[in-house]
Amino acid sequence: MGREMAAMQAASASSDAILKVVGVSKYFGGVRAVADVSIDVPKGSVFSVIGPNGAGKTSLVNMISGFYTPDTGSIEFQGRSIGGLRPNERAELGIARTFQNIALFRGLSVLENLMLGRHVRMHSNVLTSFLYWGPAQKEEIEHRKKCEEIIDFLKLNDLRKQTTGALPYGFQKRVELGRALAVEPDLLLLDEPMAGMNQEEKEDMARYVLDVNEELGTTIILIEHDMGVVMDISDRIAVLDQGTKISEGTPAEVQADPAVINAYLGTSD
After folding, report:
1. Full-model pTM
2. Domain map (residue ranges) of the chain
3. Which residues face 40 on adjacent strands?
């Protein structure tokens, strides 16, 4: 199915939204980061949030993931209000994210970083590992198998034992994507996954983002400054400017919106 057809279906499927953000606002002192923003993210879509620097994109993602608490408004995930839930509790429900700045454990291997990403799916702790060595070992083997599947999916096979701090930047970003996938999310929040990459690395990451969406069936919210990438892989796009949503629609609709042109270029002529 083409991206345009998927976008048309997404536009008509707001009742099938996996995430509903209604009128959220966030202030830091007297500074408005986000003001009365609402979005419905259709299940199975790639939904991008774009805007100039300081538009409130990361603040919005931080509210969805639980790092910030909205001052007003509500957020529902799969029909359930997630207001008041901590980030780890939202991860347990199926929300994972990557960060604008790489947040890996640089001294650990690729596999170890992915295993840490599995912690919300693990039930054994240090005590049960001593008391129930068999079940704890079985659980670790199962989680390791899942991580190996992700390593294979992201083509990191030859790097599984290398420390992440020694990897090239593009591979580190791929490992961070893998750690988020280790949560087995239904909703994946990607905060500028291609920032700092060269063109070849961007093309690789864009392909993996589409593979995650299409092959794994994961809904994606993407923040990205590369408009070429955004227009190519998004089903729907919301545009923020100075904390306010000024446009939403298909890539073609957003690209032609005078309000969007004005926000980026300073003129709609």
Report:
1. 0.86
2. 3-265
3. 20
Report the distance separating Cα 14 and Cα 41, nearest Å: 7
Task: Please report which confidence band the pLDDT of residue 126 belongs to, taking 50, 70 and 90 as the band edges.
Answer: very low
Contact 193, 224 (CB under 8 A): yes
CATH class of the domain comprising 3-265 = alpha beta
CA 124 vs CA 132, 134, 137: distances in Å = 9, 11, 9
Of 187 and 101, the structure prediction assigns the larger pLDDT to 187
Question: Angle 169-181/110-117 helices, nearest 10 degrees?
Answer: 30
Burial of 44-77, coded b for 16+ CB within 10 Å and e otherwise, reads bbbbbbbbeeebbbbbbbbbbbbebebeebebbb
Q: Which two tokens stand for residue 85?
A: 């839930």
Rounded to an integer, what distance in angstroms lies between the CA atom of residue 45 and that of residue 207?
Answer: 15
**pLDDT tens digits, one per residue of 25-60:** 999 988 999 999 999 999 999 999 999 888 999 999
Q: Which pLDDT belongs to residue 49?
A: 97
| The two structure tokens encoding residue 74 | 């509500």
Note the pLDDT of residue 142.
81
